[in-house]
Structures are given as C-alpha cells and as structure tokens.
Design brief:
This protein has 387 residues and is α/β, with parallel strands linked by helices. The protein contains 13 helices and 17 strands.
C-alpha cells in the first residue's frame, strides 16, 4: 500500500519550479506534514520498542540531573518566577522526570516554577498532556511560538535532540563548484531521483562564507547538509527570552570536523525500528530522518544576536559535573537485586559513554545576564572539556 505522502509529494512536485523539490522541502513533508508526517501524524516511537531511543529512554537520571542545572539557573537569576520552556518534548518523559524531581526534592519552590512546552505535533502534545496529568497542581502549559510575547520569558529555553530533526538542504561538489541536490520522481521506477542544480537560496552560500569554507579543492561527489532552520529558530527564540539561558543538547560536530573534506558523505541518517540506514526515500512518514548539528554555526549565530556563549561541552562531562558520578557510587553503597543493579549501572554508563550519548554536545548561551551573574559558573560546565 502506497504511503499517502507519495501523493502529497507528487502534488508538490507538480506545482514546484522545474518540477523539483529541495531535500529540505521533502524532509519537511515526510516528518511534519500535519496528517501524514512521521512526527505530526503520531507515528513517532521512542524507546526499546520504537525507532530510536534518547537519554530519557534510559530512566529518570538524565532529567533529574538536568533539573539540578535548572535549579541553579533559577538561583542565579533570583527572580520570583522561573520559566522552563522545553521545545519539542517528544512523549513527555523529560518533562515528567524534571517535574517529578522538583516535586520530590524541592516542593517549596513549586509555586515559583512554570513549565511551558512548545510542541507542534498534535499527537505528541496529547501524549504529553496525558503523561503530565499527575502534575495538575503545577503550572504547566502548552503553546505555539506566536503565543509567547517578546521578552516575556525569564528562565531557560532548552531542547534535547530537537535540531537534528530540522529539515536540511543537501549540497554536493561538482568540479570545485557547490551545487544543491534536488529531487524528482521517476514513475517508471516508482522512486525519487536526485539531480543537481544551482543553489536554491543565497543563504546557503552565505552560511559557508561565514565559516570560511572554500569548496574549490573538495573532491568531486562530496556531499553534506545545511540546517538553515536553526538560524531562524534561534532568532525567534532569543526575541522571546527576556533574561536567562538557552540550553541545546544534540549530536553534532564543530564546523571544522563537520565539513572536513574527508567527511564526504555527510551525516544524514534514517531510523526505522531501531535500524539505521541511509535511504530517506523509503518508509515515507514511517521513519525518522536526522542530520548532525553544526555547533560552530549555532554558537556564532547566537553571538551575532547578542547571546553570550557560556560554554560548550560534551553531555558525559556535563552530567558528571551535575552528579552522575555520585549516582554511580551510590549504587555500590545501596544493596539491591543484581539485575536492577546491572540495569541502573548500564543506563548511567550509557549517559556518559563518549562514543554514544555522552559524546553529544551541550551548548549553553545566555541573554541579558549581569556581570555578577556571568561570573557564577554553571554546575554543568565545571568539568574541563575533552576537546
């Protein structure tokens, strides 16, 4: 049975210039089409039985340690109300772990906390609301970006594995020239075909000029991705933040590593039932598509908007500084059954594994912080970086 997305994409192609789509347009449709997209259509599956897992799939430790960092941010800001804005909350596990930790360990500050979720998938929003119904005494609300007034948030915007699912443009090098990869549909083969052409927007060239990357000496056939959406996302976000922090956690690289000539195949990956592959043109609307995040561009663009870069580290170091090591030590002190011990220890080790989740990047940015506030080191940044 053909995916309903095929007809949707064919109609897009019929009305598109030269009957071609950019890969970003394709990715936007297969992930976020309101009815048939992977995220919007309610097909996203996270955890052991799903298509992929995240740090929250391993238990509450990730969210509880993150809550400790959010608590310190609240203390530094000193405001009577501290707003936590989670962008792209998945199935609500991270929110549940953070709120549960505050409820259990810091009940006295609950009246001063507000948890806001920005989620554009109606199906995921419903799952989140069901999961968080137990916190009815706490201030929790869901909203879209336009519902947040400018300079209205005092607190922290944060996301975990959000930017990697933003639609990306694909580019390739031909005879030293940068070209964009476009999609056409071949009805005879019943599949999408890639072709190359001029860049669809001057923003792509500007993106690489800011990084001082010259493709004239790159090998023919080199291909990579550009996430233009994260620029507009950060621009929108910083207009809503009055004072406080932006915390971004994701897998990615600095630009020098991301766009190295030897990384000739890019980072685009597909995830279907816990299997990773590299064909985005199958399982339309049934699989996740991701690309790594260029943290150099995200950091530099933030600075151009007036955001302070407070630190860039790896997730393993970030969580260790927040107490992950103490949790590991406590396991040996508290008697428990062997299977529970092994499961808990394995989960904590996965969170700090530099070849896995521990190697994710954590970028912390700040806005309108006083000199005194800037001088207070954030707990999660007190471990020396590994790079």
């Amino acid at each position: 049975m053909a995916s309903p997305l095929l007809a949707i994409l064919q109609e897009k192609l019929r009305t598109a210039p030269r009957q071609q789509l950019t890969f970003a347009e394709f990715m936007e449709a297969v992930l976020y089409h309101p009815m048939a997209g992977y995220y919007s259509g309610g097909k996203v599956a996270i955890g052991a039985q799903g298509d992929f897992f995240t740090a929250t799939s391993l238990g509450p430790d990730f969210g509880e340690l993150l809550a400790e960092q959010l608590l310190q941010m609240k203390q530094i800001l000193g405001s009577s109300t501290f707003q936590m804005v989670e962008m792209g909350a998945g199935t609500g596990d991270l929110a549940q772990d953070i709120l549960g930790y505050f409820q259990a360990h810091y009940p006295e500050i609950l009246p001063e906390l507000e948890y806001i979720i920005i989620e554009k998938s109606p199906a995921l929003r419903q799952q989140q609301q069901e999961k968080l119904a137990a916190f009815s005494q706490m201030k929790i609300r869901w909203c879209d970006w336009p519902e947040l007034s400018e300079n209205s948030i005092q607190g922290c915007f944060f996301s975990n594995e959000l930017l990697d699912a933003f639609p990306v443009h694909l580019v390739t090098v031909e005879s030293g020239q940068l070209k964009e990869i476009y999609l056409e549909y071949d009805p005879a083969r019943e599949t999408f075909q890639e072709t190359s052409g001029p860049l669809s927007t001057p923003k792509i060239q500007a993106y690489f000029e800011r990084l001082n990357i010259d493709f004239s000496h790159y090998p023919d056939g080199y291909r990579t991705e550009i996430n233009l959406g994260m620029w507009s996302w950060l621009e929108q976000l910083q207009t809503k933040l009055k004072t406080g922090y932006i915390l971004t956690i994701d897998y990615g690289y600095p630009a020098a590593k991301y766009y190295h000539p030897q990384r000739s195949g890019g980072t685009l990956q597909c995830y279907f039932q816990h299997r990773r592959h590299d064909n985005p043109y199958v399982n339309l609307g049934e699989q996740d598509l991701t690309a790594h995040v260029d943290f150099t561009s995200l950091q530099d663009h933030g600075e151009s908007l007036g955001l302070h870069t407070l630190g860039l580290t790896q997730q393993g170091l970030f969580l260790m500084a927040l107490g992950l090591g103490d949790r590991l030590n406590a396991l040996s002190q508290n008697p428990t059954d062997v299977m529970t011990l092994f499961r808990r220890r394995d989960a904590l080790h996965q969170l700090m594994d530099p070849m896995g989740l521990g190697g994710f990047y954590v970028l912390l940015q700040g806005k309108n912080l006083s000199d005194r506030q800037l001088q207070i080191p954030l707990k999660g940044l007190t471990q020396p970086p590994m790079f």
